[in-house]
From TrEMBL:
Domain GOLD: 53-138
Stretches that traverse the bilayer: 203-223
Cleaved signal peptide residues: 1-21
Protein name: Transmembrane p24 trafficking protein 6
Family of the protein in this entry: Belongs to the EMP24/GP25L family.
Major subcellular location class: endoplasmic reticulum
Lineage: Eukaryota, Metazoa, Chordata, Craniata, Vertebrata
PROSITE patterns with a match to the protein in the record: GOLD
Pfam families: EMP24_GP25L (PF01105)
Length: 240
């Protein structure tokens, strides 16, 4: 009985091993399906320390369109220079484009598949941090957007027209989403600027009020001393 159970266990083990090996081959096989496909859109804010550099890597396929926009929302520290340096490199490490401003964009077509590097350098501020809002990603036009589809289906004229209209609507929605992110960046930058000006006006008004009150007290004190008449006695009389 025990040899029979031992043989059955070996059969089950072989089946599990073969199934796992087939699964690994399907995942690692070189087919039309790409080995990696990450998120295509990102928007967030980061803090860059004084003189620091922050880099990000975005995966993109060939024949795509890469967009990258940034805006410095506020500064924290002694320095108030809002300029940062932004650079974009291709998967081979070569520089594609650079931008040095308070806000800017870097847009280009992806000529090869791989990880594209984006870096932000706070080289203009050695005594202050900056908060930068980022919006970057990749979009594809046409049938290249669906990498799971191995071949394009043959459609009739009506379905082709519907597909073209849907693709145009999708592209318009995507560009409207980008404009919405631009508005969000400007809104947050304006909010931090308004808040900073509000605090500046409050502190400056408080300081001026204290100076006015102190100067009034000092003026009253010195005026009172001018009209202060010393008392005279038999032993203490004013001299001529």
């Amino acid at each position: 009985m025990s040899p029979l159970l031992f043989g059955a266990g070996l059969v089950v083990l072989n089946l599990v091993t073969s199934a796992r090996s087939q699964k690994i081959e399907r995942l690692s096989g070189s087919g039309d399906q790409p080995l990696f496909r990450g998120a295509d859109r990102h928007d967030f804010a980061i803090m860059i320390p004084p003189g620091g550099t922050e880099c990000f890597w975005q995966f993109a396929h060939q024949t795509g369109y890469f967009y990258f926009s940034y805006e410095v929302q506020r500064t924290v520290g002694m320095s108030h220079d809002r300029h940062v340096a932004a650079t974009a490199h291709n998967p081979q490490g070569f520089l594609i484009d650079t931008s040095q401003d308070v806000r800017g964009q870097i847009n280009f077509s992806t000529q090869e598949t791989g990880f594209y590097q984006l870096c932000l350098n706070n080289q203009h501020n050695h005594f202050g941090s900056v908060q930068v809002y980022l919006n970057f990603g990749v979009f594809y036009e046409g049938p290249e957007t669906d990498h799971k589809q191995k071949e394009r289906k043959q459609l009739n004229d009506t379905l082709d027209a519907i597909e073209d209209s849907t693709q145009k609507v999708q592209n318009n929605i995507f560009h409207m989403w980008r404009y919405y992110n631009f508005a969000r960046m400007r809104k947050m930058a304006d909010f931090f600027l308004t808040h900073s000006n509000y605090n500046y006006v409050n502190w400056w008004s408080t300081a001026q009020s204290l100076v006015i009150i102190l100067s009034g007290i000092l003026q009253l004190y010195f005026l009172k001393r001018l009209f202060n008449v010393p008392t005279t006695t038999d032993t203490k009389k004013p001299r001529c």
